[in-house]
Amino acid sequence: MGVFKAAGSGIATASRRPRVLLILWVFNVLFALLIAGPFFALFSSDLGHSLLGRNLQALDFIWLGDLIFRYQDVAPAALAAVAIPVVLYALVYVFLNGGIIGRLLDGEGRTTLQTFFSDCGRYFWRFVRLFLISLLFYALAFGVVLEAVSALLKPVSEKALTEWPDFWISALHSVAALLVLSLVHMIFDYARILVVSEDDHRVRHALTTALRFVGSRFFRAWLLYLLIAAGFAAGTAVYALAGQAVPPEGLAWAGLGILWGQVFIAFRLWTKMVFFSAQAEYLRTSP
User: Fold this and answer.
1) Confidence band (pLDDT; 50, 70, 90) for 142?
2) Residue 34: which domain range?
3) What does residue 161 show for φ and ψ, rounded to 5 degrees?
4) What is the pLDDT of residue 51?
5) Would you tell me which of 24, 113, 224, 225 could form a disulfide with 269, CB atoms 3.0–4.6 Å apart?
């Protein structure tokens, strides 16, 4: 199957699994509340119903500086209140990935809470091992590959007579970082899919197979990944442009802004499903 057909098939498969999307959205909202709750309570107690609270801009450095100075003794506890949910969020999504891929690959089975969480539990420890291995790959990618790119670009930057070469070098470095990130992420997506599709407990074997698969079809597999990523980027741009049209004042408009934000979250989660389903279809149909 070609890249574009695999992308279309992935979109169709993800769209046929609305219950998976609903489960992911509920978890996302719960974790957002868990992370935002302590800070909302802090801001509410500090500002209350004051005139400053009504007129505060999105980023007021004077107020932020005053708030940091006032609560400097509780900063470690506040950081822990953020770090712990973030770590839990990462672990939960390692857990949820089993349910996502399991339900997407089960073409005949229904998506219920029982089947979804059964898949989550079945593949959790295998996905944890893949996650730990991926940390090594990311470290190598950013610590070796990107450092090599920086070393190659450094002589050009040192010889620059204006700021423009530095600007373009910085942009090129950012693009290289995104491409390296996408490559590693793509390889481990295929490894997760292989773990589920073959019910393989040997995660290193699944990773090796994924590396061989991507290596033999590198540009086509990467094109599929970048195609879906470009679709997400386009959707993000539409979200940002439409969000600017929402007036910043008024209860009804604020409610519309919150609703629009939830639509974007659902779109981001649905895109994650499209990545898995399109890559699974490409893996299944490639000779």
Assistant:
1) confident
2) 3-285
3) -100, -15
4) 45
5) 24
Q: With pLDDT > 70 as the criterion, what percentage of the chain qualifies? A: 69
Asked if residues 210 and 194 have their Cβ atoms less than 8 Å apart, the reply is yes
Amino acid 179: pLDDT: 84
Size of the chain, expressed as the number of residues it contains = 287
The three state secondary structure string of the chain is CCHHHHHHHHHHHHHCCHHHHHHHHHHHHHHHHHHHHHHHHHHHHHHCCCHHHHHCCCCCHHHHHHHHHHCHHHHHHHHHHHHHHHHHHHHHHHHHHHHHHHHHHCCCCCCCHHHHHHHHHHHHHHHHHHHHHHHHHHHHHHHHHHHHHHHHHHHHHHCCCCHHHHHHHHHHHHHHHHHHHHHHHHHHHHHHHHHHHCCCCCHHHHHHHHHHHHHHCHHHHHHHHHHHHHHHHHHHHHHHHHHHCCCCCCHHHHHHHHHHHHHHHHHHHHHHHHHHHHHHHHHHHCC
Closest Cα partner for 83 from 93, 72, 75, 95?
A: 75
- Residue whose entry in the numeric block shows the structure tokens 């204006």: 162
Q: Which two tokens stand for residue 152?
A: 């190659």
How many domains, in total, are found in the chain? 1
